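To whoever is on call:

I kicked off a structure prediction for a single chain this morning and the downstream step that reads the tokens threw a length-mismatch warning. I double-checked the sequence; it's 346 residues and nothing unusual in it as far as I can see. Pasting both halves so you can look.
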Amino acid sequence: MNKVITFGEIMLRLSTPGFERFIQAKSFNATFGGGEANVAVSLANYGIDAEFITRLPENEIADSCISELKKYGVKTGNIVRGGERLGIYFLETGAVARPSKVVYDRAHSSISTINPEEIEWEKVFKGASWFHWTGITPALSQAAADACLKAIKVANKMGITVSCDLNYRKNLWKYGKAPQDVMPALVEGCDIILGNEEDAEKVFGIKPKGFVVHATGGYIESVAFQSVCEQMMEKFPRAKKVIITLRGSINANHNTWAGVLYDGKKLYESKSYDITHIVDRVGGGDSFMGGLIYGLLTYPENDQNALEFAVAASCLKHTIYGDFNLVKVSEVENLMKGDGSGRVVR
């Protein structure tokens, strides 16, 4: 069986009820979420042996977080304990022309003060075939970036496939380093690179030729991104596949959603979905990544199928509250086949 390891920060998510603004809220809904943990949950739901690695404090909130991961079948046995606190993020869900807002309260979180030597990566990677990280982790602190780099180097040495989601977050890079200073050394060890047009531009200065994102009216021509994929592969020659998610934002509740995959020779384009009533788009990219990893492991000779699975899985995530994509393989495959009616299953 394929075993996938993910590494990063998981946080307590506090969301305003419904579509209330922060100033209106008298209570918050508490869940947990974080890019790499979200990927692990997706994979566990698909029957993949998935393990999440992080550093958490020794308290009951962290214990609850671990229990939540275990509930969905994610292995947690190599999580290290220590540090001051679990990070928090507050979410205000947008509607129509009002965008969603996130406020972070994650300074001095346990993973940001990690000692890169705390995790025995050779032990963690025993029996693993895949390692996944995102650009959020090295944005937290130099220590977290160093821990991530060590993991990548060990994975490379052990012949494990390494994937990354560039996940640029401008509000996180606060410790004196810019992503341009840190990310290249990490991404050069990756076999699979996922991003969107903003990630590629903000982190590496790579942008699609002859294309202005804000002039699309919510609809994106996928072939415009082949140049982004080509430039990424030229910059990072280890990469075997570069994948770009294509989100056309008509308003906060109505997006188009698709993706492209480039293998160095051919550009694969997915079906485009019109998501008209978004329940929760947080974790959408992570659900895509979880679907992509599953697809590449399950359809190793069929990149088109792998891409279609990722897009369909992520489309379904937009209908589910919380960070985690709680869908089954059969549900994703039904949507891939065109069953998007939403009729009651009896």
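Update from on-call: the warning came from a stale cache, not from the record. Cleared it. Sanity check on the structure: The chain is about 35% helix and 20% strand.
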